[in-house]
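Example 3.2
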Amino acid sequence: MTEKILAVQRMQDYIDAHLTEKITLCDLSNAALFSPFYCARIFKELTGLSPADYIRRLRLSRSALRLRDDKRKVVDVAYDIGYDSVDGYQRAFYNEFGCNPHEYAKSPIPLSLFTPYGVKFRSLWKENEVVTNISNVFIQVIEKPERKVIIKRGEKANEYWSYCQEVGCDVWGILTSMKSLCGEPVCLWLPEKYREKGTSEYVQGVETAIN
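Structure, written as tokens:
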């Protein structure tokens, strides 16, 4: 794994840890241990976004979950997530998701939330590196009540990365925006009897209560 990838991962980790604070390119430079200019260039190269756009999209997506789950006022969420004004937050929210945060808070709908995949882990997948030193793995079977699952199927996928190639990684953001019993989307390997013809073994979805 290259030092460039590790540097961008350090920047991503710093952003996640300081998301509600003011984050400057100098801050990211200090985290990455490279010059600001070089940091901005490699960040855009490996994530597809400038640091500013990455931070903006992540803040807005996290704020949407707060509006959905915490039932907080829009003004409070705006300032907590790092915006200087409510008007600026509302414009940014609308530009990102196509709806007003007040309307969304009252009646949440599925949104394409931003999912910040770490470049380090994408690199591991591309290089087909396999972890062989796993030990002391604990497995526990837990009985859960019956529930329904809203799923998004692929075609031939049997694991996460092949599923992303077929369906796209962005589907995780949409599923995350949907209220789920377990709090986040789930990954499933469907038995043959639950698969539709021409669809994948591996799927993603959200658990919902049975009516």
